[in-house]
Amino acid sequence: MGKIDESITNLTNLRSLVLSDNMLSGSIPHNIGKLSLLEKLELHTNLLNGMLPLSLVNCTKLQLLILRFNSLGGRLSDFDFSGFSQLTKVDLNRNQFSGVLPKSLFSCRSLTAIRLSRNKLEGEISPDILELPSLSFLSLSMNIFKNLSQALNILSRLGKLTTLILNGNFFNETLPASGISGFQELNVMQLGDCMLFGQVPIWLMSLTNIEHVNLSDNNINGKIPGWLQYLPNLFFLDLSKNLLSGGLPVELTRLPALATHQVLDQVKNDKFELPMFKVRLHGSSWQYNCLASYRPLLDLSYNNLSGDIPVEIGNMKSIQALYLSNNYFSGTIPSSISNLTNLETLELSHNLLSGEIPTSLTSLNFLSSFNVAYNNLQGSVPTGRQFDTFSNQSYEGNPRLCGPPLQKSCSKRSDPSSPPSGHKKGLDSEMIYGPLLGFCFGFGIILTCQLHCMLSERTILPRWIHRYFIWA
C-alpha cells in the first residue's frame, strides 16, 4: 500500500522493477528515467494514476512494460515509444488512455505482444502496424475503434500473428463476408460484443490453424455453416447471443478437435505472449496462460435455432462444455450425450424439449453444471452420482417433472389393463345417486317457479330457468 517512493530512482543499476499486486496509489515516479538500465517494469494490478512519466523514454533498454489494471491515463499518442528498440511486450490493459494508437509504438520493431484493451482509444488501425514483423499477440478489445474491414485487411498481413482480440469495437458495422485472406498462423480470433451484422464469414474456412473463434454478442444471422467441420483444429466455438436460425447442422458434430482426443492433444501448449483474461463467460471469470487451458466448448445459446438436437452430438467426445440454451430446440434430449465422457457443463434450458431426461446421463462423472429448466420435460429426475448434486433450479419450469430435488413426488403408475381400485365402486354410486339427485333438483326448480308465479303474475323467469325447464 502507499505510494512508490521517489528514492527508488536512485537505484541506478536496477534492471528489474516488479511491484505488482500491492495496492500502490499515486503516480509513477517522474524521475524513473534515471533507471537507464531498466529492462523490466511491472507495476500491474495497483491503483496508480496520472500519465506515463516523460522521463521513461530514457529507459532505452526496456523490454517489458506491464502496467495493466491501473488508472493511468492521458493521450497515449503524446508519449514517444520510438526509443524502445528492445521492447518486446507492452501491456496497458484496463487503464484510461485515450486518443489514437501512437505511431511511435510501431517503430518498436522487436514487439511480439501488444495489449491496449479496455481503454478509451479510438480511430482506425493504421497500416503502420505492419512495421512490426514479429507481432504475434494483439489485443485492442473494448475501445472505440472503427472500420473493421480495413482493420482485418491490414492485420491479416501480419505473418506471425497468432492471437487477435478485437472484442467490443466496430459497433454496428458489417462483418465482411469475403475478401479477407492471410491469417495463416492465427490460432485465436475474438470479435465478440461488437453488434456486427452479417453472417458467419466464409473466409474463416481458410484459417486452417484456427483453434478458438468467438463471434458472440453480435447480430449475425443466417444458418450455421456446415463447412466449419473442415477447420481441423477448432475446439472452441462461441456463436452465442446472435440471430442464427435453422437447425444444429450434423456437420458441426464432426469438428475433428471435438470428435477425437488425438486431434485435441495436438493443440499447442505454448504460453500466450501475455495472459488472456475472460472477464465474463456465463457468470465466471478466468485467466488463461496458454491456449490449451481453454475448455473444448460449443456455445450456441441465445439464438433462434430450432429442430431436434441431432443424435450425432454424441460424437463430440472431447467436448467439455455444451451450451444450447435459449433457443427453440424441440424433440427429446439425445441419450447419445452420455457418450461425452469429458462433459463438465450441459446447458439446455429455455427450449421446447420434451420427453424424459435420459437416465444414461448419470454416467457423466465430470458433469458439474446441468440445466434443463423451462422446457416441456416429464417423468422422474435421474438420481445418483453427479445428479444428486444439482438443485431444483436445474429443473424448474417443467411442471411434469417429479422427484428429488423437486418438491413434486412421482406417483406410482397403475396397471392400464385393469381399472384402478375404487373405480367400480364409484360407478355404482353414480348409478344409484344420479337419478335421485336429478329428481330432487328438477322438483326444486318447479317449486321455485310456482312461488314466483304466486308472488306476481308479471314476473318473467330468467332465461336459464326457461331453458332448463323446457329441457327437463
Automatic annotation (TrEMBL):
Keyword Amino-acid biosynthesis: no
Transmembrane segments: 432-455
Record-level GO cellular component terms: plasma membrane
Predominant place of localization: membrane
Segments of this protein annotated with the region Disordered: 396-425
Domain of life the protein comes from: Eukaryota
GO biological process, any: response to other organism
Subcellular location field: Cell membrane
Topological relation to the membrane, as annotated: Single-pass type I membrane protein
Keywords: Cell membrane, Glycoprotein, Leucine-rich repeat, Membrane, Receptor, Repeat, Transmembrane, Transmembrane helix
Family, as annotated: Belongs to the RLP family.
Name of the protein: Leucine-rich repeat domain superfamily
The organism of origin for this protein: Helianthus annuus
Organism ancestry: Eukaryota, Viridiplantae, Streptophyta, Embryophyta, Tracheophyta
